[in-house]
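Lab meeting notes turned into a lecture example. A postdoc, R.K., suggested we walk through two folding results consecutively so the class can see how the record format repeats. The first protein's sequence and structure tokens come next.
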Amino acid sequence: LFSVGTTSGQVGDETVYENASNYLITKRSADDTLIWYDHIGAPKGADVFYSSTVANSLALSSSHVFVAGTKNQGINGESLIGKQDGFISKYTLDGTLVWLKHVGGPIQSGDSMPDLNSYYMQGIAVSNDALYVTGSSDNTLASDYIGSDYFLFKYDLDGTLLWEVHGPLAS
């Protein structure tokens, strides 16, 4: 049994910062025994103030588990690209992180609408040869439209973007 979400405070033997939350993935047995867990978010020693990394969906293949979510901080050695970025991660079934990808749009210098640089990863699905991620963005992805766009990304199982579809959400 796999689950994803967000956590702050104590995770196993580790402490997550009081004003930060990290994404959490767990694998449990049928009798609810914790088999393994991982959390990614604010690095140890970071000066954080209300940092948030939230995992909100997962997909399971026969050999891997994939996680999608949203973050408002740099994680895993990568800097934040926009105001909030999306992320996708791939784990082996025994809990080894294989890769972590970031999706976001840069905040332009002098941007009059800096809040319009956010990606919200909301769903993930896996097939035999591809990974599909859907969500919404407060960026101008496909046109000069300012507001929320939807997106659907297709990746190969190694995390390479194959194609994307996006457009304005109906008002």
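The second example is placed directly after the first for contrast:
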Amino acid sequence: ALAAAAAKKGVACADALDLAGALGQATDLIKQVDGYINITEPFKLAKKIEAEPALRDQLAAILWNCAEGVRIASLLFSPAMPTKMADLWNRWNCTPPSGVPLAQLCEWGGPLSLKAGTLVAKGDALFMRADRFDERREWVRSEVSALMASQPPMLATPSAIASLIQKKMNS
């Protein structure tokens, strides 16, 4: 229900041409999926399948819920990340048909949702791990502070900050 509400809010933002709002709802939806994974622990459940085959349906439902949440979030992320989202759709065999309203595409469990048994292919991570992102953000903050405090003070221009970020990414 929370994911469906986030999808509806994201669609409303997109309809109002509020890209930041739509991206925020997509991010919230991904956070909800992450929380759901932490609560349901599908990877632990998967390890029990051989000994307890009856758990297979429960695991399938958990994985479908996660994938459906990511699919809907991908629709909301697509204006900002079109290539990455198109790659996901191709790997998951769920490329949205053109001409269909976003609200219909984002309907949780609707006619355009992921279908049971659909083959999906693994690909690169869609998002940077939060802990790595936080580590890099803190490093950039400290470097920018050092730039500002240097004698003579260096300007923290966008190009200087971009150079610092590139330096960290390459290390």
